[in-house]
Specification:
- About 30% of the residues are buried.
- The longest helix is centred in the first third of the chain and has 17 residues.
- The chain is built from six helices and seven strands.
Length: about 170
């Protein structure tokens, strides 16, 4: 009986540790890391934060089907988000040096209007403690992390919209 109680207690602690409320502000800021734009120029993540508007960081890869689905779904509403919230989405590819050359052609074929960057050495991915992609996070106008999620399900962009709407209401 003691073993069962111990097991249940351990499982409860494990699940409560991993269950997170994505809507809560953690106060964390975007880590300062250099990534590259599609022209190969270094871009610091410090430049993501302007102090005026929220921004979104999406880590994705060309080989990740859910990543493509999420970015495709957001692209359908992204222009409206920019107009309504002034938000910028930084689509940061985690493709390594072997597949990095595929990023530009994929982006052009998709017609994405995002700021597309490459994290070839996974520096940003490590700094954000990301294990799986797609990974999407939202930072408020103060540069604080307010929401994040891993994976994608159709309609997930509606939850992102609701977070942006909530941030706009807090002005």
């Amino acid at each position: 009986m003691k073993k069962i109680i111990l097991l249940v207690t351990c499982l409860t602690l494990c699940f409560s540790t991993f269950a997170q409320d994505n809507s809560q502000s953690s106060g964390a800021r975007i880590p300062t890391v250099d990534v590259k734009n599609l022209e190969g120029e270094l871009v610091s993540t410090k430049q993501f934060y302007t102090g005026d508007h929220p921004f979104i960081v999406s880590l994705w890869a060309t080989w990740c089907k859910p990543c493509m689905e999420e970015l495709d779904a957001i692209s359908l509403v992204y222009e409206e988000w920019v107009e309504e919230f002034g938000v910028t989405l930084y689509a940061v590819s985690i493709d390594d040096s072997r597949s990095a050359s595929k990023v530009g052609p994929v982006v052009r074929a998709k017609g994405w209007d995002y700021v597309v960057l490459q994290d070839i050495n996974s520096d940003l991915k490590r700094a954000l403690n990301v294990v799986d992609v797609p990974f999407l996070c939202i930072f408020n106008k103060n540069g604080e992390l307010v929401w994040s999620h891993t994976s994608y399900a159709p309609g997930g962009e509606e939850e992102v919209y609701e977070v942006l709407k909530k941030l706009a209401a807090e002005k």
